[in-house]
Design brief:
By secondary structure, this protein is of the alpha/beta class. The strands form 2 sheets. Strands 1, 2, 3, 4, 5 and 6 form a 6-stranded parallel beta sheet that branches. The protein has a 3-stranded parallel beta sheet with strand order 7-8-9. α6 links the parallel β3 and β4. The longest helix has 27 residues. It is globular, with a radius of gyration of 21 Å. The protein binds zinc ion (2 copies). The site of one zinc ion (ZN) has 4 residues, from loops.
């Protein structure tokens, strides 16, 4: 017979097991201490922010104290950020012959920012450089090209991007390229074409990470089969918690883990919360129509719609939608860890590329609250450091090593 004390213990143990599969939850005081230690020691790496468009189109300076955007130097400092991958993104509707020009302009403007603020920013192109810049007390800045359309079907453009310091490329954006299917489009190639496979091989050789965010499921599996190095999902969340094509199914998460890669959880409300995604669907048409009308108004005066104006329209249309709490990010991290393992999860905020962030994660300055939430959930310090950036550093090193071997 169990006495009362033993019965209590059994109940306690089973309820803790239900709350967290990894270890027991921490007391608030313990969690706070753990989070503080981790914030001091970890190199927090965010693999996706779309801020360069604001720099290029509006002369946005990262040092601006009252920044209207999600990423700025003061916010990075508050957020204990270690490294940011700035996205070199060009819209799929951009004139085809100007895609490379636009990308080069974006790369240039990121370099300008790093040069202008070299006291606090440093450009990194390797995992070791991220660590070195971090040890100097600076923020490491990296670049990833978002969308295979931006090479204009010319493999040599990959060489150029690589030489300019770009360290990943997302194989597609929201539309199919001429060699890969996107999750945002109707399947055309059943995954990767022969040229698509050559793109992946060339990226392996160059030491550029292959990014499978945005691609169709078939392109994902084809990419994994071809790539000689681990791949990343620079900004994707879990389909089991929010069923949208941009997120990864459990089977994809397992395949990515087997490949040794890392999926970096996207902070967009519509990828974290099913309720938000469903509600967003209902106002999507209205939002797009209002944005198109505003763009046309500005275009008639030979101007482009300014980003703050765009945000105002977005806020007014989306204001009643049920944005999730930032703890939803931790839910997705939990799920990805349960399915794929703690070595294959990271952070890919998508800041400045999203029109809704969770409540409590409005910009990069709020990252420490996510660390505290994860600490409360009982992750070990070592596992927290992996999720916050260690896993990405490992993948970068593996990609660098595969590149060295292939060039021999
Ligand atoms: Zn982006
Ligand atoms: Zn994206």
């Amino acid at each position: 017979m169990l006495n009362t004390r033993q019965i209590f213990k059994v109940i306690l143990a089973s309820s803790l097991a239900a709350v967290s599969l990894f270890s027991s939850q921490r007391s608030p005081v313990d969690a706070e201490k753990t989070a503080e230690r981790v914030l001091q020691q970890a190199i927090i790496i965010d693999t996706h922010a779309d801020t360069p468009q604001m720099m290029l189109d509006e002369g946005y300076d990262l040092a601006q104290p009252e920044s209207p955007y999600m990423v700025s130097i003061p916010k990075m400092r508050q957020g204990h950020l270690g490294a940011e991958f700035f996205s070199i993104w060009v819209d799929v509707t951009w004139p085809k012959q100007d895609l490379i020009h636009r990308a080069l302009d974006l790369i240039e403007v990121v370099n300008e920012q790093v040069a202008r603020h070299s006291d606090v920013l440093g450009m990194a192109t390797t995992a070791d450089e991220i660590v070195r810049i971090h040890l100097q007390g600076k923020f490491a800045i990296l670049m990833g090209v978002e969308g295979g359309h931006i090479i204009e079907d010319d493999l040599r453009v990959l060489d150029i991007y690589s030489r300019l310091g770009v360290r990943y490329m997302t194989l597609t954006h929201t539309a199919n390229t001429d060699w890969a299917d996107s999750s945002g489009d109707q399947p055309k190639w059943t995954g990767l074409t022969d040229l698509g496979k050559q793109v992946v091989e060339r990226m392996n050789r160059l030491g550029m990470m292959v990014d499978i965010s945005h691609v169709s499921d078939k392109t994902f599996y084809d990419g994994l089969a071809v790539s000689k190095a681990p791949v990343i999902a620079s900004h994707s969340s879990c389909r089991a918690l929010c069923n949208v094509p941009r997120n990864m199914s459990d089977d994809m998460i397992r395949a990515l883990a087997k490949n040794g890669g890392v999926m970096d959880i996207n902070f967009y409300s519509g990828f974290l919360s099913q309720a938000y995604a469903d509600a967003n669907k209902k106002v999507e048409k209205q939002l797009n129509a209002e944005l198109a009308a505003a763009r046309a108004r500005y275009a008639s005066q030979g101007k482009r719609l300014p980003y703050p104006e765009e945000q105002k329209i977005e806020r007014s249309v989306l204001k009643d939608l049920p944005a999730p709490s930032y703890t939803a990010i931790a839910d997705h991290i939990d799920h990805a860890v349960q399915v794929g393992g703690v070595d294959h999860v990271g952070l890919g905020s998508d800041f400045d590329g999203i029109d809704s962030a969770p409540v409590g994660m409005e910009d990069v300055s709020k990252l420490p609250d996510l660390v505290r939430e994860l600490a409360r959930r009982g992750y070990s310090e070592q596992d927290l450091k992996k999720i916050l950036g260690g896993n990405l550093l490992r993948v970068m090193r593996q990609v660098e090593s595969v590149s060295r071997d292939m060039r021999k």
